[in-house]
Each structure stands twice: as C-alpha cells, then as structure tokens.
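Sample pair:
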Amino acid sequence: MPEHPTPRTYEIVLRGRVGPRLLRPLLDDFTVDHPEHGRTRLVGEVRDPGHLHGVLAHLTAFALEVDSVSATPSAPPTSRSTPITQEETS
C-alpha cells in the first residue's frame, strides 16, 4: 500500500495584486497577503503533489503569473503583510 505524503507548507508568489474573487477557492487552505507592491503571496499547507498541481492549475487558468513556488518551514506569514479576510471576499 503506498504511503501518504506528509503535508508541507508552500509559499506561492504571484506577480500583481490579485483580488479576492480569483483567490476565493483557495482561502480555506492558504493565507493571502501582499508583502510588497506588485506581488501577492499565498502560504499554506499542501497535502500532496496532486493538491499543489490543482492550486497551480487554478491560478494559471486565470492567466495569473506565478513568480515562484517553494516549500517553506511551517511558519506563519510575516507581520508586515496585510491578509485578505473573508469579509473582503463578499
């Protein structure tokens, strides 16, 4: 029986300030912030390679430019960021 991979925390950086409507399907799994002008950062736990592929497929389906994808230590986003709240997605 194949072993299930351990979830890992990933950071995905997008070019541009992406609005909450396009990111709504990802808000349960990812924290979204804008750490610098012209960038959107998603940080969250990815269950397996298929989950990561699905997240990237969602982003690229809307022609969003993925700047970087990297596994990170399990740490919360920096305090200088401005998270998108559920209220902003309404």
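The beta strands are 8-15, 30-33, 39-46, 66-72.
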